[in-house]
Amino acid sequence: VIVSTASSPDQAGALAATAVLEALVAEPRAALGVATGGSPQPLYASLARLVGDEGVDLRSRTAYALDEYIGMPPDHPESYHAVVARDVTGPLRLRPELVHVPNGAAEDPVAAAAAYEEAVRAHGPRVQVIGIGANGHIGFNEPGSARDSVTRVVELTAETRAANSRFFASVDEVPTHAISQGIGTILAASTIVLIAHGATKAEAVAAAITGPETTDVPASFLRSHPDVRVFLDEASASLLPQHTH
Ligand code: F6R
């Protein structure tokens, strides 16, 4: 794991965007794996600028989202279908038909999860952007998730639903379940770029990078991957020992 600390979330986003672009250029067939939420927004904004300034053409890239809520129609503004279209597909000028999000509105979410796992794995190389939850989750792999877990139906913890309630009128509107790539699915990517900012992430970041590899902190399993790059602002890096950032 290589950790870079920047003075602000925007600076961290700019560094992370450069790393993502380099990894994509190095692997012309690689899919782009994308996270939703607040953490990657500075990364996507910088990447959109880079793509525009440098005339990079991402139109032939396939993208895969990490997760989607269950039971939310895709046209709901806070469904991850809608968030990915808004934050990623549009700004990066990807072709919508090449951008995939798990089908959380499927009649059979278990089958939809299995189909998604197969599609992600079949694509081959993937440059995966991830955030981290304050409880150490990656994707919606909550504490207790196995290292070799695959895309599946998961139940969100009360903490995760509370954290995501900022996007909804109340916590009761936050779905209770999601389809999420597994930890094993995420670890199959060739390059993983983790981005985080803010003091609320400091404990999870420190546990993931310096603590034991344990199901209690799903992000700690990233340490067994050969190419993980972590981009932090000072607040989210504040509990790391000095030499790691
Ligand atoms: C999002 C995802 C989650 C988030 C994490 C942090 O697709 O899978 O793991 O990355 O919950 O969320 P934010 O960035 O909103 O703090």
Could you please describe the fold and organization of this structure?
Helix content is 31%, strand content 17%. It is of the alpha/beta class and 245 residues long. Strands 1-10-9-6-2-3-5 form a seven-stranded parallel sheet, with helices on one face. β2, α2 (41-53) and β3 (63-65) form a beta-alpha-beta unit. α1 (9-26) packs across α2 (41-53). The longest helix is centred in the first third of the chain and has 18 residues, at 9-26. The radius of gyration is 17 Å and the shape is globular. The mean pLDDT is 96. Bound molecules: fructose -6-phosphate.
Keywords:
245 residues, alpha/beta, seven-stranded parallel beta sheet, three-stranded antiparallel beta sheet, 7 helices, 10 strands, 31% helix, 17% strand, binds fructose -6-phosphate
